[in-house]
Structures are given as structure tokens and as C-alpha cells.
Amino acid sequence: MKGFTGKLVGSLCPITDEECKKVHKAAVRVLEQGGMRCDDPRAAKMFEKVGCKVEDDGKLVKIPEKVIMDAFKKCPGSFTIFGRDAEGNNDIRIGDGEVHFATVTGRYLRDIRTGERRQATRADAVDGTLMADALENVHSLYKAVMWLYDEPKICNSQMLVGEMMKYTDKSMTWVYNTGAEHEVPDLIKLWQIAAGGEEALKKKPHVLGHVIANPPRVIDVNYTDWLMGFCDAGLPITVYSALMGGATGPATLAGMLVQVIAETLALVVQTQSYKPGHPLCFCSFNPAMDMRTGLWQFGNPEYGTVGAGISAMAKFYGVPCVGFTINDSCDTDEQAAYESALKNYTYALSGISLIWDIGGTAGFNYVDWAHMCIENEVAGFIGHYLKGIRIDEERLSVDEILKVGPLPGSYLREAHTRKWYREEFFIPKLSNRDFFESWERGHTDLLEKGKQQALKILDSHESPVPMDVQKQIDEYLNHVKKRDVGEADKPPKRKE
Amino acid sequence: MDQEYFDRLAQAVVDGEADAAVQLVNDGLGKGVDPIDAVERGLARGIMKVGEDFGAGEVFLPELIMAADVMKKATSILDEKIKASGTPRTTLGKIVIGTVKGDIHDIGKSVVAAVLQANGYDVEDIGIDVAVDGFIQSVKQNNADVLGMSTLLTLPLQVMGEVIAAMKEAGLRDRVKIIVGGCPVTQEFAEEIGADAVGFDAADAVKKVGKLLGRS
């Protein structure tokens, strides 16, 4: 899907070019002097191969600046995450000045039909996927829900990804979930089935993989499994650190940035050593700790600011940047709205290519399909802001201004107006634009409008995925279920 | 020793000054201070003050955690003397707490430990990635009243059930209350594995531990 573009994309930068150099030098000092603890001997070998110093019996790697800069020379400056539609309408370009929005996830949700707040199930994963598939400003998906509480732990990820592959042809992203024995090969198999085979997936990867360092300064075993899995399957990846300021990272924004960049640089080196030229991007996922509860906080200004800083550093190194926003409110309320809007706008202005936020609240705990519809609209607002003011002869409108004025002339009947207003003005679907008195006499509030839109989608939207592909996925899930728990799989039925 | 000495001891905890607290403790012991007095009239007053201020939203986790660390360092010196004297120190209860095997998340568990300590409990934090045996050994060694287990992840949840089974096998289950907590832990899960309570956050954990020990 074509993302949002415009002259404001990349216009916000919380650090100057000179300061980017300082952050880089500081990160290099961390990697040259302190290095990364390496919990996986395979990872240590990858670092050693490209000239890093391995100490402490293979458990510590020190990474020189030259190795880092050599790794960046191999990284492409942009790449595509493909949709699975034949027309290519759902392809998204990462790193070409387009901003895309994607869903986030939650363990709980508001049941759109009953209003009950409850744990998510496999049927909800189907609903969440169809919702994201239908909404026009949702360009890609994260996990439709975080966890299927009605499925066994051992094959939870497989059932989730299987349902997602059955109900959308938009791209998705994956972050390691259970660590179960078959998680990596099974998910790759499911993505291959959805793409039409191993080579088809390599040619048109429809998944962005996540590889994360363990802060402070550890290269993790599980993520090394995933790094190899993603690279072998030909899936582009985003590499980052999920540090939490004041807990697993310093309590200054500059310090957070330095540690994030250091840990990210280590993963860039690791990836380019394992598979030179593999497409990768940076990612922002850097909450500060709430000093009352110890919880991560996503809604605060520092989250957006550090994210914009990571985007600036990605530009400095010539690679794209993606990022999570989400918010902290435990409900789909005013706080959820202002936190998301402010941060998404900040991210978009900073030029982050793919923003995961739509539909979720409470720091990855809660999703609500009504909220997803509202945030789909907010994404549209942001997309419109990003355009800025486009200046050209026809838009300058001098002929029109001379023709229509002075009063009693009006622009309403002019062909120029009819030609331009839809493109230049934003026309919301859900936001209230009523006459005050009409609204006073009776109205539907915003969440209810979101709910109506969601119910309409769930009632009418059909999966774009061909039946034979859905069948192949069901067969594979059945094989997984039989292998892992010894019983046949019973996928949720749509519209009995 | 005069009141000023105990006030300084309390203040060292409030200020998170471990070196100062240890120095004061050693000075006091050299001058014949009763180690039980040093804990109860000095250090414990400090940590309780931090606990109150934390509850009131006047200080935050960095102060609380640092105060708990000072408390741990200073009381370890005093506890040796107290043990040697044969007169036990009275606390609200002894709690062993850790993050279960398969999970290295430290913060949530450390916050709960600090808040419990700030509320007058004696807490032994046995760290992260703790295997079944580690919990059993520590419960025995510390003669714990309560065992607390934490995880942020889903797969390590099963370890909690294994620990409870091992507690039964070791004949410890009847005299030790068990509280569990962490992101994926629900009331239903706690009941399923036979834990006595779930702490949904640090304040809730303090409330539930109080209830389990019949103090509220």
C-alpha cells in the first residue's frame, strides 16, 4: 500500500547532524571498550569472522568502528515488504520517504459484540486480522492479538500466525513469542505456504522479522535463532534494543540513545556477518520506566523524542527506521487518544517508515476494534498533515482569486473548488463535524461510531486469501496440533 | 548511644548511602550498641519512612530500591551479631522471593521485594532464573514464612507449578504461604497450581502477604 508522503516527512529532528556524530562516537566507545556479552557461541563466531575481538572464552565481543562502518556498506538503503495480493497494492516501501501505519497487539480485548473486557482467543485473532485487512490506513499488521488463551502454549504462535495468514494478504511483522521448540521452523513454513513456497517467500518476503538485543549489552540466544531463521528464509529484519530508561538503560535521553545505538550497531554487524547485504532497519521501542510502578511507559513525551532520535541516527547511517508507539491508558479513552496522536505525529514527522500503533492501548495489553477504527482515522489525519502546503501554479489559485472576488462572489460553485477540495481538505469518516444544536438534540459518540464501523466490517468483509491457500494452512496447523498435543486442530468457524 | 545516632542510621537508609550506613553500624557495634536496637530504632525506621513517602508519591523507585539495598547491606552485618547473641530479631515475617527458571526479568520482582521490605518484612531476594531446587533450598535455609515467585513470560509459568509440587514433596507446603505474580499470572492460574495468592502489583502483594500471615 502506498504510504503517506509529503514535505513534512523527516522534518522533525531532535538532534543536529553534529550531535549524531557525537552519539555515534559514544556508541562506538561502548562497543570498543565494553563490548557485548554474547550468550550464544554461534553469535560469537559471527562477530569474530568480521574482525571483532572475542574475549572471556568467547562470551564477550568488542566491536571496532571499522567493522561497524563496513557492515553498513553492505546494508541496502531501502527495501520492500510485500503484500500477497497479485496486484502489489499491499506492498510497502521501507526507507523511501513513505510513512505507513500498522496494528499493535494485546492480551486482552473489548468484545466488540458484548462490550465485555476479556482474554483474547483464536477467534479474536481472526476478527483482528479481518479488521486490519479492511481498514484503508492500516498498511501492515503486528500480531492480531498477543496470545490465544484458548490454545496450548506450545503451539500458540503457530495457531496465531496461521489464522493471520488465512485472513489477510497485507504484510505482517513478527517478534519472538514462546521460545517453543518448533516456533521458528513452523512459522517460516506457514509464511512460505502463504507466499506460495520457499522461493516465492524469498522473492517477495511479506514478513518483517524482529531481532532484539537484551539490554544492557547482551546478544541473546533466542534472537540469534531468529536472526538466522529470518535471514535464511529471506525475510528483511529490524534490529534494535528494547531498553527501558532508568532500568535497563540510563536515565537520560542521550544515554538511552547511545545504548540503543550501540546495541543496534552490534546487531547490524552480526546480521551483515551472517548474511552480507541482508536488508535491515533500525527500530524504536524505548520506553522509560515509570518510577512509581516500574512499568514501561509509552505515552510520555520522552518516548516519542527518543524514537525521533533513533530515526535521525538511522538516517545518519543510511538505513531505514521503523517503530512502535502505543500508549499507556488501560482503556480506549481520552488518554489513549492524545498519547497516540501526539506520538504518531512525532514519529511520522521524524520520518519513521512503519509505525505500529493502531488499535492497541495499555502497553501491549489491550486491543479494541472500535479503537482500531478511530486510530485508522487518526492515521489519515497524520497522513494529511505530512503533505504540508503544496505550492504550484494551479494551487496558488491566482486566476480563481481574481475571477471570484470581490464579494458577493463565492468559490463554492467553481470547478476549481470541485477539482481540489477532496485532495487538499481531509474528510473524516468518524470525527464529529455536526452543527452544535443538532448534536445537542441527539448524537452517536465516537467510540460507538467506531464500534458500528467495526461490526460492519466483521459482518461483511471477506478474506482476500484464496481458499486453497487457507486449506493448506489448516492442514499444516493440524499437523502441528497433532505433533504437539496429539489431537486434531479445530480452527474457529466464520459465519456458521 | 543517643537518639541522634539512630536518626543518622535511619537517614542513611533514606538517603540510599550504603557506605555511610555500614560505617555507622560498625562504629555503633564498636561502642556497644545493641544490634537489635540498631535495626529497629535506626535502619527499620529509615526504610519505613521511605515506604511511606513512596506510598504518598513523594519518592520513587530509585530511592526505594537504593534504600532496600542499604538495608540489606547494613542488616547483614547486624544479623550475624544477633544470631550469635541467640535473641532473635522480630520482623513481620520472612519472605523468599525470586524470578523463576527461564526468565531473566529482574525489575518487577525487585520492586515487590523492596516494597515488602519497606513495609516491615524481612526479604531474601534470590534473584532471577531460579530453578525449582533454588527455591526449596532458600525456603529451608531462611525458614521462610512466605515464598514469592515471579515471571513476565508465559512459558516459565509452568515452573511455578513445579516449585509448588516440590514444596509439597519436601514437606514445606503446609507451613509456607505461596504468592505468585507477574504479567501473565491470573487468579485462575494461581488457583490451578495451588498458590495461596496473586500479587497484581507491589502494593497488592503487600496487602495479600499481610492477609496470608493474618496481619490484616
Biggest sheet of chain B, strands in spatial order?
A: 2-1-3-4-5
Sheet of most strands of chain B: 5 strands, parallel
**Class based on secondary structure composition and strand pairing of chain A:** alpha/beta
N-C termini distance of chain A: 32 Å
Q: What distance lies between the first and last C-alpha atoms of chain B, to the nearest angstrom?
A: 35 Å
**What's the CATH class of the largest domain in chain A, please?**
Alpha Beta
The CATH superfamily of the largest domain in chain B appears as Cobalamin-binding domain
Largest beta-sheet characterization of chain A: 8 strands, parallel
Q: What is the N-to-C order of secondary-structure elements of chain B (H for helix, E for strand)?
A: HHHHEHEHEHEHEH
The 3D shape of chain B can be described as globular
Return the CATH topology of the largest domain in chain B: Rossmann fold
Instruction: Give the helix tally of chain A.
Output: 18
Task: Write a structural description.
The complex is a heterodimer of chains A (496) and B (216). Chain A is an alpha/beta fold. Chain A has two domains: 1-388 and 430-496, Alpha-Beta Barrel (TIM Barrel); 399-424, no CATH class. Helices cover 46% and strands 14% of the residues of chain A. Chain A is built from 18 helices and 20 strands. Chain A has helices at 17-34, 41-49, 65-74, 122-134, 156-167, 183-195, 198-203, 221-233, 253-274, 301-317, 334-349, 369-386, 393-396, 398-404, 415-424, 436-441, 446-460, 467-485; strands at residues 36-38, 53-55, 60-62, 79-81, 92-94, 100-103, 108-110, 117-119, 140-141, 171-174, 207-213, 218-219, 237-241, 280-284, 288-289, 296-297, 321-324, 354-358, 360-361, 366-367. Chain A has an eight-stranded parallel beta sheet. Chain A is globular and about 85 Å long. Chain A starts with 16 loop residues before the first helix and ends in an 11-residue tail after the last helix. With 216 residues, chain B is an alpha/beta fold. Chain B has two domains: 3-85, Orthogonal Bundle (Methyltransferase, Methionine Synthase (B12-binding Domains), Chain A, domain 1), CATH 1.10.1240; 94-212, Rossmann fold, CATH 3.40.50. Chain B has nine helices and five strands; from the N terminus they run H-H-H-H-E-H-E-H-E-H-E-H-E-H. Chain B has a five-stranded parallel beta sheet, with helices on both faces. In chain B, helix 1 runs antiparallel to helix 2 (18-30), helix 3 packs antiparallel against helix 4 (61-85) and helix 5 (107-118) crosses helix 9. The mean pLDDT of chain B is 92.
